């Protein structure tokens, strides 16, 4: 059977190619996701191991460092460390926020990769950065700085140039004396790096007399264990000694924190592509089985059993799957390389080195490709076994009778209905475990709808094509109606991608509407001052300058940080109790000015955790401070973190320079323009502060949502491409089937243009049918999700009609593009051969 | 019924001059047509006969503009086909030529009515409804028009094909074994209709067949062997055709 299968496949390359294409794409996405994330991880691991190879031990504050000035060591410790037996050399350094201001006065970076400032360490073994001789020298005096090579290249900066750098103390001008590499790299994952003398860095980062960390090299012949033991004896409270390896690993983990999430997200989208591919594969096999009824019947006639025929079709599927999956893995590796190159070009450099192709990558990709293909071919293969031997002799028996419509309606409706119930249940449950219910429900919904689709395919195709005039339209209409299952299955592949895109845009539109509504109703402030850099806040000095301006009646700052409750790190917001309610309505249950030392908790969190107002809970702040705090009230706003404390407590226990945003209200009689002008004057020395009006805020929020939608749509793009490939597949195969018909049409006078037109209309009708199904499901899921998330502040269900209309037109155009190849092929068909075709 | 022939002009509807058609090359070269000179008069029913491989189908295809000659010229009316590009050839087939094939004559998704109107629909024209009704009436299809091909008998399908060829009033109709797939009664009916189309409606028909009985319905039989015309016979009967065939090889 395998030999027959191979012969059959090589004899029909079109069939092979069409089936393989969708598998290749799906598998390539899976493999590419693995290779890409593995490679990033491995390359940075190598880089970090390399640059920190010389560090044998590190002395550091024993708490999580999450902000400049957080946790530091007394400078004096360096001398003590150097005196410890077994220490070869030791170097202390400080690190903090430093952002380069470009020629236009705009701060560089901040939203994406961090902007890091260091003190320069002279001991090369202890300094991850290095300056080669042609790139200048290390900073030795105040006012000198070394920056990373990549940033210098991007900004056209070179040694000797003067550059403005913003730190928490304000903006100062420095002379670039050196361009530093991070290990062998120009840069560290796109971060901008600046390095100053120790004394200057200590001053800039508000760390006079202190060190962030001390790295130690063991003396010759000293075992790391002995070194650690020696150091442990002298480290003070609230400091600790770790091995160089551990420190390296932790740094690495911090940098690649998001990698696991990225991998999951990419694989999720790859899964969608594979799922859509399964539809295309199934349809292709269904059509090819239908076209080979005579051939398969002949096999039956000469003695093959029904199950042998099934095995033949499955063997073909298996061969195609293995070959296509292998090609897919290779393509995935290529794609990963391409993305890596793209990121390099975009300045997000990933250290050079080979791609990481783990055995797991190959195994999982192959298994996914093969399993999905064979599963998708299972139904058509089973159907092949029911072809009677007599079909070899006569066309009359060649048609397999379709299952009864009632059964189909019943199965489809119960599948879709059950899936909808599961999704609703999952959404309403609203916790982590329900995600599986929602995803499973979505899958079921797609399968159910695709089961139902053939029932409506004919009437819908007729309605859709009603406006198309002429014989070409008529023929296209009849062709789509001729094989409802085929049309529906082809359309279903497109349906999935479209449904997900539609859902995403509805979700986004609803978020936008909700955000706009929330901001309008709960945000009486006229201006907001937000930091362009997420790692460092608005400088308190900046807030002070605002408070001094007569144009503003109220200025109120909001800080964001974290604390721990029951061992869990949670976001917390610090507000100025006297003024916050005049700039921001968070829906508090009490007068916020009475918050005192107490804690306000979001209503939902209060309920989930089973607390009530008046309870006293235990909070751990950084640095090991434990404070028992009374819950004094609740609030309902969603934009803030779930916990609110007073600014006073925040400054005392967390930090005084984590102001995330500061709000201001204009004084009576001051226009928005006057206020803006005043704000700009006041913020002149703080280029990392963005001044936003309320409409800016709304636009910002919308822009962020739009970015996400664009990203999602891009990632769903492959699923759409596979679906379009499916349309091209179906058409190409149908044309082979209709060779005689096309020949006849050409013989009686149909022009090539008319033949092309017929095929094109057919593709457009199918594509629009699929898009409409997708639209229906997308809107349905969107409505379900948005309304069930009502409690979480996503109340406004909004349908972006304009986008959906554009989407429909786009689907029609895409169908047109998918039809170009098949239409050309049909039009080029030799009339005489088509007539003689058997 | 208006059975008076509309076109009374005589002359030649289609002709071939020095027609040569070669398949393959070298050792495998086959001369399917080897210098054919032939003309087909208007309002005549001509049968082309010959043993398998004699080149009769090739002659039909090249005459109809479905295939091109290696050398020589073919004309439909006054138009020389070799000078036409695909678009013009398509237009010529649409306007001047009708076809009846042995099988697969109808588009399965269209009703008999739509199939008969197909060439006219393709042209975007409106048919002459009186003429349409006449043709459909003569062919006995009036009550079958709403049916799809799969709901028609073999004879009805071939008659629908004949109706399609007639409705656009072509210069000439080419038929390739039109009765080849039919039982003798249906086949006889179809051939009788074709003869009436010539006699009463003034059509011109060229039919390829290997069946002497079918040839007996024609006005003239042209015999072909090894790609050349080897003889002809006016007012044939099945018996006279059989006698003549015996003198041919194969």
Describe the structure.
- The complex is a heterodimer of chains A (838) and B (250).
- Chain A has 838 residues and is an alpha+beta fold.
- Helix content of chain A is 56%, strand content 16%.
- In chain A, the strands form four sheets. In chain A, strands 4, 5, 6, 7, 8, 9, 10 and 11 form an eight-stranded mixed β-sheet that branches.
- In chain A, strand 9 and strand 10 form a beta hairpin.
- Chain B is of the alpha/beta class and 250 residues long.
- Chain B has nine helices and ten strands.
- In chain B, strand 7, helix 7 and strand 8 form a beta-alpha-beta unit.
- Chain B starts with 11 loop residues before the first strand and ends with a helix.
- The interface between A and B is medium-sized, with 23 and 30 residues.
How many individual helices of chain B? 9
Helix content of chain B: 25-40%
Number of strands of chain A: 23
Lateral strand order in the biggest sheet of chain B: 6-7-8-3-9-10
Most residues in contact, chain pair and counts: A-B, 23 and 30 residues
Could you give a short account of the major beta sheet of chain B? 6 strands, mixed
Fraction of residues in β-strands of chain B: 25-35%
Helix-strand category of chain A: alpha+beta
Rounded average pLDDT of chain B: 87
Oligomer description: heterodimer
Label the overall shape of chain A: globular
User: Low-confidence stretches of chain A at least 5 residues in length (pLDDT < 50)?
Assistant: 65-69
Shape of chain B: globular
Q: Got a strand count of chain B?
A: 10
Sheet with the most strands, sense and barrel status of chain A: 8 strands, mixed
Write the SSE topology.
The complex is a heterodimer of chains A (838) and B (250).
Chain A: H1 2-11, H2 13-51, E1 57-61, E2 73-74, H3 77-83, E3 87-93, E4 95-97, E5 99-101, E6 115-119, E7 129-130, E8 144-148, H4 149-155, E9 162-167, E10 170-182, E11 192-196, H5 198-204, E12 210-211, E13 213-218, H6 224-234, E14 239-243, H7 244-255, H8 259-291, H9 293-301, H10 306-345, H11 359-384, H12 405-429, H13 434-465, H14 470-482, H15 484-522, E15 527-531, H16 540-547, E16 552-565, E17 568-575, H17 580-583, E18 599-602, H18 603-608, E19 616-621, E20 625-635, E21 643-646, H19 647-653, E22 659-666, H20 672-682, E23 689-693, H21 694-737, H22 739-747, H23 752-788, H24 801-828, H25 831-836
Parallel strand pairs in A: 6-11, 8-10, 17-21, 18-20
Antiparallel strand pairs in A: 1-13, 1-14, 2-12, 3-13, 4-6, 5-9, 7-10, 8-11, 9-10, 15-22, 15-23, 16-17, 16-19, 16-22, 18-21, 19-20
Helix pairs in contact in A: 1-10, 2-7, 2-8, 2-10, 2-11, 2-21, 8-11, 8-15, 8-21, 10-11, 12-13, 13-14, 13-15, 13-23, 14-23, 15-21, 15-23, 21-23, 21-24, 23-24
Chain B: E1 12-23, E2 30-41, E3 45-49, H1 56-63, E4 71-76, E5 79-80, H2 86-96, E6 97-100, H3 112-116, H4 118-123, H5 129-138, H6 154-167, E7 172-176, H7 184-201, E8 205-208, H8 212-215, E9 220-225, E10 228-234, H9 238-246
Parallel strand pairs in B: 3-8, 3-9, 6-7, 7-8
Antiparallel strand pairs in B: 1-2, 1-4, 4-5, 9-10
Helix pairs in contact in B: 5-6, 6-7
